[in-house]
């Protein structure tokens, strides 16, 4: 909080997982991503971007951006320097596994585009590069119960020491974003 309100008190700040500006980052941005990934809040089985679309996006990012740092090694050294437009993968006619539907493009853009509120930039979008990482999009953004039920575990250590049932959540962003909206913004555990 001090860093957010009085940044001039510091020469620099190193933060591994900064939790700040929750209403914008965890509220507005996550609500946008959650709406795009799960347009029907009563159906959390599969995100709009399923495994095939995620593979297409991730592989295309690597094909287009990997060698831009001078070395084709499967690593994006600085994802901020890559200008990848997911709209380039939109289907031009019938949808196939080699292109994205407009709904999938909109969902991917909810992740990558900067967040603007009333025309003002409020939060940067996610940079490219984490689409295929084991702890990347699958865990944080696109999980879904159908594809992730056996693979994603949230807070396993805390759950083992508690009688509190684990929350039903298809992705980490869904849990964080909806939790902020339910309990901090609306103070209504039934909010959806």
Structural descriptors:
mainly alpha; two-stranded antiparallel ribbon; 192 residues; 8 helices; globular; 2 strands
What spatial order of strands do you see in the largest sheet? 1-2
Rg, rounded, reads 18 Å
Strand content: under 5%
Order of helices and strands: HHHHEEHHHH
Task: Give start-end ranges of low-pLDDT stretches.
Answer: 154-162
Number of strands: 2
Shape: globular
In percent, how helical is the residue content? 25-40%
Major β-sheet, in short? 2 strands, antiparallel
Structural class by secondary-structure content? mainly alpha
| Number of alpha- plus pi-helical segments | 8
Q: Compute the separation of the termini in Å.
A: 28 Å
Mean pLDDT, nearest integer?
83
Walk me through what this model shows.
The chain has helices spanning 2-5, 22-37, 51-65, 102-112, 137-142, 145-148, 156-160, 172-185; strands spanning 115-117, 120-123. The chain is mostly helical and 192 residues long. It has a domain at 42-130. Strand 1 and strand 2 (120-123) form a beta hairpin. Helix 2 (22-37) packs antiparallel against helix 4. It is globular, with a radius of gyration of 18 Å. The relative contact order is 0.17.
């Amino acid at each position: 909080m001090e860093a957010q309100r009085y940044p001039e008190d510091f020469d620099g700040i190193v933060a591994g997982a900064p939790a700040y500006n929750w209403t914008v980052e965890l509220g507005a941005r996550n609500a946008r991503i959650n709406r795009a990934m799960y347009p029907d809040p009563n159906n959390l089985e599969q995100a709009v971007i399923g495994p095939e679309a995620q593979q297409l996006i991730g592989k295309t990012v690597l094909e287009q951006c990997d060698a831009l740092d001078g070395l084709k090694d499967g690593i994006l050294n600085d994802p901020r320097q890559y200008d990848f437009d997911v709209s380039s993968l939109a289907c031009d006619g019938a949808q196939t596994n080699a292109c994205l539907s407009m709904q999938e493009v909109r969902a991917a853009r909810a992740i990558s585009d900067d967040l603007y509120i009333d025309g003002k930039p409020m939060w940067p979008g996610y940079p490219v590069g984490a689409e295929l990482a084991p702890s990347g999009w699958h865990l944080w953004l696109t999980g879904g119960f159908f594809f992730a039920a056996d693979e994603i575990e949230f807070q396993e250590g805390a759950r083992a020491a508690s009688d509190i049932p684990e929350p039903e959540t298809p992705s980490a962003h869904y849990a964080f974003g909806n939790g902020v909206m339910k309990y901090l913004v609306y103070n209504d555990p039934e909010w959806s």
